[in-house]
Amino acid sequence: MHILQINTVCGIGSTGRIAIDLQALLVKLGHQGTIAFGRNTAINCTQTIRIGNNLDSCLHVAKTRLLDAHGFGSAAATKAFLKKIETLDPDVIHLHNLHGYYIHIGLLFDFLKDFHKPVVWTLHDCWAMTGHCAHFEHIDCNLWKDECHDCPAKSEYPKSWFLDGSKWNHQKKKKLLTGVRNLTIVTPSRWLERLVKGSYLRDYPLSVIYNGIDLNVFKPVSSDFRNRHNLQGKFVLLGVASAWVESKGFAHFIELAKKLKSDEKIVLVGVNDEQVRHLPLEIIGISRTGNINELAEIYSAVDLFVNPTLADTFPTTNLEALACGTPVVTFNTGGCSECLEDGCGLVVERGNIARLVEAIADIKQAGKASYSAKCRERAENFYDSKVQLAEYVSLYKTII
């Protein structure tokens, strides 16, 4: 069995790590796995195909910024890639994120409709159902249910500077993305499953496979993290993101810093140089790290993981914190509340800073030790990547 995965990146970020972990399992089971990607460099992956090059990506960005035609650039790169698929002749094509300035979805889906091979499509966000954005919950937009137009998120990823092509995009995507024979959609949360059932993708078979993490890496570990950052005796709150855009709750951490007690401190992982220069003294900024062992040390060293995200599907950061024995306070955004159960942390109404402060105080009073065992148990029972990835292998065999 040969599985071709297609994703924006390979070995980078949550979707990139899912792709390489799945490929590693396939190889271990005696199958073949190839990952096609469009951005950056492949990490920890043996068999890959780069779709296009940096120039192709830059031109796709320009088309997005000027014409709001994201997903409809990179035509030449996509045509060359489709010829490679024909040569490769995989048994299953597994799609992940198709947005990210690297592939022409019109050419891709016309090809898939004629290629007659089983297709799995894991939706990591909402982009497949909209005329522009990857998330709409934070702006309470429901235009995607009928037809997008006058997009209120035009200035957000994938940003358009001038034109609003959301209506055309939505109509075009509806025509292109439906009607593929033997396509199965996978969502990583029940929340996203419900949205798909209300979209033009509703007629496809649908499965839920939660995101998983490597429990041999993300586990309670000791380190000198507190000593290195002078955090002895502090109650430490942690936030982690690959990029701290506003929808991830960056402004909420700035507001939260104003309300900290003298023995409390915030650590933010993933901030850029500009953000670091403007952080208040109550926040320690750490640049993004691709070292998952280092991440596990940070999760283990802090007292509480705080995730005030305004737009998310099923964040792996919540799962990583739980696996390291650290309780989670999260907004009830997307599938975030599905991550937790009693004894693992608290879920707060999205955007409610006052309640967020109260929840932090509640967990501080109870102490991390009263949550750690339950957090680890939750991760072991539901988020072991070996189990989740095995579900994908079973799905491949079923649809073949």
Looking at the structure, what is the overall shape?
A: globular
Structural class given helices, strands, pairing? Answer: alpha/beta
Total individual domains: 2
| CATH topology annotation of the largest domain | Rossmann fold
CATH architecture tag of the largest domain: 3-Layer(aba) Sandwich
Taking pLDDT < 50 over at least 5 consecutive residues as the criterion, the unreliable ranges are none
Main sheet strand line-up: 3-2-1-4-5-6-7
Number of helical runs? 14
Average of the residue pLDDT scores? 95
Helix content: 25-40%
Highest CATH level, the class of the largest domain = Alpha Beta
Largest sheet: 7 strands, parallel
Q: What would you give as the CATH superfamily of the largest domain?
A: Glycogen Phosphorylase B
Beta-strand proportion: 5-15%
Oligomer: single chain
Q: What are the secondary-structure elements, in order, as H or E?
A: EHEEHHEHEHEHEHEHEHEHEHEEHHH
Instruction: Please state the CA-atom Rg, rounded to the nearest Å.
Output: 21 Å
Q: How many angstroms separate the termini?
A: 9 Å
Q: Compute the number of strand runs.
A: 13
Tell me what the structure shows.
- 38% of the residues lie in helices and 15% in strands.
- The protein is an alpha/beta fold and 400 residues long.
- It has two domains: 2-212 and 385-399, Rossmann fold (3-Layer(aba) Sandwich); 225-382, Glycogen Phosphorylase B (Rossmann fold, 3-Layer(aba) Sandwich).
- Helix 3 (75-88) runs parallel beside helix 4 (105-115).
- The longest helix is centred in the first third of the chain and has 16 residues, at 13-28.
- The radius of gyration is 21 Å and the shape is globular.
- The model has no long low-confidence stretch (mean pLDDT 95).
